[in-house]
Design goal:
This protein is mainly α and 368 residues long. The chain contains ten helices and two strands; from the N terminus they run αααβαβαααααα. α6 runs antiparallel to α9 and α7 crosses α8.
Length: 368
């Protein structure tokens, strides 16, 4: 392994962050993906099939936007090691906005595209927006209107997409060498994105607070459940010990009574000592007194039932011993306490600071 120090970059990421909104989103993201104290487990899946491009533009809050561009979908067999349709639907559910671009020159109305658009409309219709891209290539205004009518008609044939007030703004990238009379509504797209960014900052801060409360509540619930399980285990353990003691002590006392009955008091004192011998004599005397009360023809039956009772006590002792609930180890409880302290001491104060930045930015924008 080389001992050379890594070369420092000329423009680190921290120096490129200039707005409070950008810093808030970055700080919240770091709290979720911190390698040691993460609030969210990153699941592998599509990451191997994603490629990224980074733009350094700062105009129109571009640094706060992450575009996820899916490939153009056409009818036919596209073999992937994962379900493409489900992946696109899932990404649409996570995104703040879903833009559907219909290209007048391509296969915009293929069945596969319309199926996915209809599925997205069922799950997130409030953030689904339609645009006619490359509108300047659609020909004259009459041609453009005909293309848009055709697209709208195809969409409205789907039950999930049939709605009133269907809007489809026209957008395109202006070309100075090929001026077009087509109205370019791309500024409206930028305004929609900027409005969504402001909402996303607020939602991110609110979600961070909810997640912190949820983690703390989950930890408290698990610790409370652990205390309840520990109390239950103590109760079960006590039942097991009592049943086991009866299952062992009673037959031993029964057998010992007959053995002691064959010995004289002098022999018993020599074997056990005067004090212990007297206690044993009292116990065995009670057993023999009860034994004499049993008729001789019923003594065999009594021994059978007595043995069955002792066996039942041993069985219950084993049964109760296996009824305990699994409890947390000391290491697990210590780890949960560390998580709770981290959230209370680090995450929540940082969230309060981020919220203060957000309010300051809102006040500054309002003054402008």
């Amino acid at each position: 392994m080389s001992g050379r120090k890594p070369r420092s970059v000329a423009n680190p990421l921290e120096s490129a962050i200039t707005t409070p909104s950008e810093r808030i989103l970055k700080e919240c993201h770091n709290l979720y993906v911190d390698s040691e104290n993460t609030l969210n487990m990153i699941r592998t899946g599509l990451m191997d099939y994603l490629s990224a491009e980074i733009s350094t533009s700062k105009q129109k809050k571009f640094s706060l936007v992450t575009f996820v561009d899916t490939p153009g979908l056409v009818d036919g067999d596209m073999i992937y090691p994962f379900d493409v349709n489900s992946a696109i639907t899932w990404l649409g559910e996570q995104a703040d906005l879903v833009f559907v671009f219909f290209d007048p020159m391509g296969q915009a109305l293929c069945k596969r595209t319309l199926n996915i658009v209809e599925k997205l409309s069922e799950k997130c219709s409030d953030k689904l927006l339609f645009y006619l891209s490359k509108a300047d290539e659609a020909g004259k205004e009459t041609d453009r209107q005909r293309v848009m009518m055709q697209i709208v008609q195809e969409l409205c044939r789907r039950p999930g997409l049939n709605k009133c007030g269907f809007e489809m703004p026209t957008i395109y990238i202006p070309n100075p060498q090929k001026p077009s009379r087509c109205v370019n509504q791309i500024d409206g797209v930028c305004q929609t994105i900027e409005k969504t960014i402001n909402q996303a900052v607020q939602k991110t801060l609110d979600q961070l607070e909810k997640d912190c409360d949820l983690v703390c509540l989950t930890i408290s619930s698990k610790l409370e459940q652990d205390r309840s399980d520990a109390a239950y285990n103590r109760s079960v353990r006590l039942h097991s010990v009592l049943c086991g003691a009866l299952g062992v002590f009673l037959p031993l006392l029964f057998i010992l009574s007959f053995i002691v009955n064959t010995l004289s008091e002098e022999q018993l004192d020599e074997l056990m000592g005067e004090g212990l011998a007297r206690s044993v004599s009292v116990l065995t005397g009670i057993v023999m007194y009860l034994w004499d009360w049993i008729p001789e023809d019923g003594q065999v039956v009594f021994v059978i039932f007595f043995g069955a009772f002792c066996y039942l006590q041993l069985f219950l002792a084993k049964y109760f011993a296996g009824r305990g609930n699994k409890t947390l180890t000391k290491k697990e409880k210590r780890k949960m306490a560390e998580y709770s302290d981290y959230i209370c001491d680090i995450v929540k104060p940082k969230k309060a600071k981020l919220y203060e930045w957000y309010l300051q930015q809102c006040a500054a924008e309002y003054d402008l």
